């Protein structure tokens, strides 16, 4: 009842797998892959060079534009406290100090607090003739300098 094929020694290994052939196949596959990648790279570079050689030469303006780079963005420094402080100082100077607007016409700018006090005493002028209102409020302004105030019905 003993089978001659199955009575082999337990220390014997299966010798059907040839590791040398597997290594040779892997090396050959790697070699074919590397050669095909090199050939593909050569074809791409050759095609690019051929396309560049068939292009028309660049005009002098285009050549000059290639070397020019636009300036970088004019970004505000962070934090913008210095810029904001300068802006606020300029605004406060315009709002709170006397200044000559037009010397030929005799127009001046007065501080906003005084302007509010004057309007509180005199009141707002009645709506009417633009030149009469401008003369009363601003001391005389030419009509062409005043843009009309649109009414709610006007488009």
Account of the protein in words:
By secondary structure, the protein is mainly α. The chain has a domain at 81-145. Helices cover 52% and strands 5% of the residues. It has five helices and two strands; from the N terminus they run αααββαα. Strands 1-2 form a two-stranded antiparallel ribbon. The longest helix is centred in the N-terminal third of the chain and has 36 residues, at 19-54. The chain is elongated and about 115 Å long. The N and C termini lie far apart (114 Å). The relative contact order is 0.03. Residues 141-155 have low confidence and may be disordered.
Concise summary:
The chain has 155 residues and is mainly α. It has helices at 19-54, 60-67, 81-96, 112-122, 130-138; strands spanning 99-102, 107-109.
Throw out a few tags for this protein.
disordered C terminus, 155 residues, elongated, 52% helix, mainly alpha
Give the topology:
Blueprint: H1 19-54, H2 60-67, H3 81-96, E1 99-102, E2 107-109, H4 112-122, H5 130-138
Antiparallel strand pairs: 1-2
* Strand residue percentage: under 5%
Number of helices: 5
- Residues in helices, as a percent range: 40-55%
How many β-strand stretches?
2
Helix and strand element order: HHHEEHH
Spans of at least 5 consecutive residues with low confidence: 141-155
Rg (CA only)? 45 Å
Largest sheet, spatial ordering of strands: 1-2
Shape: elongated
| Largest pleated sheet | 2 strands, antiparallel
